[in-house]
Amino acid sequence: MHIMEGFLPAGHALAWTAISAPFVVTGAVRLKRILVERPELRLTFGAAGAFAFVLSALKLPSVTGSCSHPTGTGLGALAVGPAATTIIGTVVLLFQALLLAHGGLTTLGANVFSMAVAGPWIAWGVWKAAGKVGLGPSVAVFLAAMLGDLGTYVVTSAQLALAFPDAASGFAGAFAKFAGIFAVTQIPLAVAEGLLTVVVMNALNQRALVAEVRA
Amino acid sequence: MIRTDRLAAASRWKDKSLSEKAVTALGLMGLALALPPFPGALAVLVAASLLAWRSGVGPADWLALLAPPAAFIATGTVALAVEIDAAGLHLAADGGRAGLAVALRALAAVAALLLLAATTPTPALIGGLRRLGLAPELAEVALAIYRFIFILQDTAQTMHAVQAARLGTVGWRRRIRSAGLLAASLLPRALDRAHRQEIGLAARGFDGSLRTLSAHRPVSVWGLARAAILLVSIAGLGLAW
Q1: Coiled coil where (chain A) (predicted)?
Q2: Are B15 and B121 in contact (CB under 8 A)?
Q3: Does the structure's ipTM exceed the value 0.90?
């Protein structure tokens, strides 16, 4: 759920850029260190990033008659970890802005925070917690991807509500408005993304690919 | 092929200095955010559209580029045009004017972004970021992602067509399963392709950097001056109105 170019006031755009910057810089420093030690991994990261971009263009059935696309935050967090997902997600969001005008440059910080920081870490946390309470792998993957997607949508709604508080009911009313409007597509989409991620993870595990990707 | 990338590759401004295009497009974007939406953002929208037309983007292509972001902006604007209070949900006291102002500002900023994207191939933009201090390793990863996108997109489209031909897209359940299997088949192919390219590079003495040639495009002082005149004129119009 991208915030479009120019939608946020300048102050909010700058603030979200500042909040996201430490996560992106930490991820970039880590990625740089890995690439200095193993330069040949440039192409693997390139393939993983392009895969994330193409995945985000996959059409998923959402509410009746409409389609939407997965965020890939859950799959990314489970396959390569939340920190690596942050930096790959940032590059993918930049390309989505430049190639598809989906998102934007001024709203990149806000979108990075919701889709490349909050979503992956929520998915990762849910997956770990589900493992600890003894849920089966498929249920854990489904919950992680679904709640990661929902977390992205809740954070985006909060970002918009902070920028545009309701004249009568303030932040809470604005949050209810944004969350309510986007819930029509985002809740079915989150369920669809959870199911999709289970299918992908099962297929990857059958091919022993998750271990290879993490390595 | 992605429309913006095709237009950028064929643009009359392709060989223009990146600095001139960036000053123009990012300056317009800044004005869209900073000026009052009427007439500031409206002037930015008109200026970006005229410049895009001058650079070789036809009206049909320009509208096709603007339409998807405009639809997303419209969805967000609905929330700004209504209020919630004890009486329930109703039209905002200002009649939705604040929402329209945000929509106009966002559409103008999107037009400025598209002006840059439709006149500058992405590798040139990454090259510009590299000159501004982006680490070479990260720039190379970004370029690798860009190059893989088109290969994987073609592969994904072919796989989707095959699934559709086998009725894999009929019904909600099959569509989820097909999308999942497509993603699961695409990732190993992507990694396998990357691995084969790594072997190919290693065989050619890969030392850690992927150097490519890029054309030298000198900055035109007159071009920068024209951009500055345009930006100052729009700023003047927006503030004087």
Answers
A1: none
A2: no
A3: no
